[in-house]
Inverse folding.
């Protein structure tokens, strides 16, 4: 399973990259709005840090406007992936961009039919939002299971990118379901390392060794 980080924060991206577990980055306008500086410059820096896909989202709502913005974003770096909303215009723009060989991440996916539509349009990635579904008492991870089944039934190559991840169990469930990628906030990446028995065990190993060496 690939791990992407879901952030526009360069420090978080650098730290996750140093861990050696980072395969890509997803940003969105809300995430970039939290950062200081020009978003295009930030995206350029991110693309230099990470050797993998970096999703950058358009804000136009009509096909032509999306294509115009996509052109500008794609010029930032070779590893930019264009993120488009899953609307009829977004699907049209997806079809056009993928036919030009530009990678596309279809975002704001909340139903299996939306996932089917974007796969038919040749999307590189589909981003179902699990946390936001859980927030409204729907089954976010259930959607991942449905999309995985549908894509397997028809041999679609669109990669399932689990988005709106809120806690480590989303990642465990996504891995058990065979999702291709999870995009994870930095805080949840740090939570993934945590186990109380690791902390207790490490403390004991160190204190036993120090006793043996007469250091305490
Ligand atoms: O990048 C899109 C997605 O991961 C957003 O997550 O937490 O705002 O629902 P969230």
């Amino acid at each position: 399973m690939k791990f992407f980080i879901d952030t526009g924060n360069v420090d978080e991206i650098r730290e996750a990259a140093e861990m050696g577990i980072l395969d890509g980055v997803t940003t969105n306008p809300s995430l970039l709005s939290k950062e200081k500086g020009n978003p295009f410059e930030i995206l350029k820096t991110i693309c230099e840090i990470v050797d993998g896909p970096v999703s950058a989202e358009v804000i136009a709502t009509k096909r032509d406007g999306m294509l115009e913005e996509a052109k500008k974003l794609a010029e930032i770096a070779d590893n930019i992936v264009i993120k488009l909303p899953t609307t009829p215009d977004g699907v049209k723009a997806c079809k056009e961009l993928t036919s030009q060989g530009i990678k596309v991440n279809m975002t704001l996916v909340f139903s299996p039919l939306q996932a089917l539509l974007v796969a038919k349009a040749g999307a590189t990635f589909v981003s179902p939002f699990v946390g936001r579904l859980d927030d409204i008492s729907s089954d976010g991870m259930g959607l991942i299971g449905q999309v995985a089944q549908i894509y397997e039934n028809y041999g679609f190559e669109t990669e399932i990118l689990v988005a709106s991840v809120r806690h480590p169990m989303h990642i465990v469930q996504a891995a058990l379901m065979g999702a291709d990628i999870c995009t994870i906030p930095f805080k949840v990446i740090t939570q993934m390392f945590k186990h109380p028995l690791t902390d207790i065990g490490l403390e004991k190993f160190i204190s036993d060794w120090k006793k043996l060496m007469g250091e305490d």
Remarks:
- The mean pLDDT is 97.
